[in-house]
Amino acid sequence: MEIVFFLLLTSHLIGDFPLQTNGVVQLKNRGGWGIIPHVLIHVGFTALLIQNPFSQWAMLLTLGGAHYLIDWTKLTFSKSGKQRDFWLDQLGHLLTIIALTFLFPTISLAIPLGSLVALFVLAIVAAGSIYLAIFPTPLDELLEAIPPQTMFNIAKILGGAALIILVLL
Asked: I need a labelling partner for 14 at 20 to 30 A (CA). Which of 5, 48, 79, 123 fits?
């Protein structure tokens, strides 16, 4: 069951950060149908990580539906773009991941565990880079020399590296 949680968390971080391009963000911010490409990226990337994804259609459909509802809710009711809204959104996704872990505890990896760990590390670095580029932090003075676009570029490069690792394995 721990592997399922780790797999879903890694997939979420990759889908919500390095694979969420500026174009996807612009579509998503339109709401409604614009959220669907983002959700399909999540579902598709998760499907790449699991064995026999077609036999896991219920989990993938639940994941996609929950992700859509969480993002739609954030876009509909949160116009401030504040950190609180970001963390509430991520909390919703984390609770979904926990629920899916208990509902579908027997999902198997399609990649070696070491590759999943490598993807997780890349996902954490990418998510952290994007977070620091979006929200001011006490570290801003230390990070002043790094322009926000550079942080986004680092995250996108890491996302590309994650996909290359996945393809090579």
From this structure: 79
